[in-house]
Amino acid sequence: MLAIGWLAEGNLAEAQRAIARADKRLRITEDRLIRLSGGIAAARVRAAVSGSTAEARRELDALSREADGLSAVALAFEARLALGEIEMRTGDASTGRARLTALEREAAAKGFVSLARRAAAAAR
């Protein structure tokens, strides 16, 4: 959460340090939901810091599938949101917009109103 806060403020160095600290803990935790959440945050930060968007996209796609397999709907939606946002920023706007629009509809239908709004805003 701290890394995402730093990322939102544009402080990439602090976001990267927060992910590095969290990564050590994530490797030893047995809680798959915490690992998923941390993985989503790490992919967001890596994409912003290093510009390694292809790697982040692969990670987010895998994390979304894993979350789906665990019926962790909110985490699957968060991974898809991050993936769509990255696509919008990296020149794959048509794919990103389609992903975000589908996510908006699905999230709203399942009662994830805030996430649906975030997806709609990101698609613009």
Descriptive account of the structure:
This protein has helices at residues 2-8, 12-28, 32-50, 53-69, 73-89, 93-109, 113-123. The two termini are 25 Å apart. The protein is built from seven helices and no strands. Helix 2 runs antiparallel to helix 3 (32-50) and helix 5 runs parallel beside helix 7 (113-123). It is globular, with a radius of gyration of 14 Å. The mean pLDDT is 92. The protein is mainly alpha-helical and 124 residues long.
Summarize the structure.
The chain is mostly helical and 124 residues long. It has seven helices and no strands.
Count of beta strands: 0
**Subunit arrangement of the protein:** single chain
**Secondary structure category:** mainly alpha
Describe the largest sheet.
none
Shape from CA axes? globular
Low-confidence stretches: none
Helix content: over 70%
- Pattern of helices and strands: HHHHHHH
Average pLDDT, all residues: 92
- Separation of the first and last Cα atoms: 25 Å
Computed CA radius of gyration, to the nearest angstrom: 14 Å
- Quote the beta fraction: under 5%
Tally of helical segments = 7
Layout of helices and strands, plus pairs?
Layout: H1 2-8, H2 12-28, H3 32-50, H4 53-69, H5 73-89, H6 93-109, H7 113-123
Helix pairs in contact: 1-2, 2-3, 3-4, 3-5, 4-5, 5-6, 5-7, 6-7
What key attributes describe this structure?
124 residues, mainly alpha, 85% helix, globular
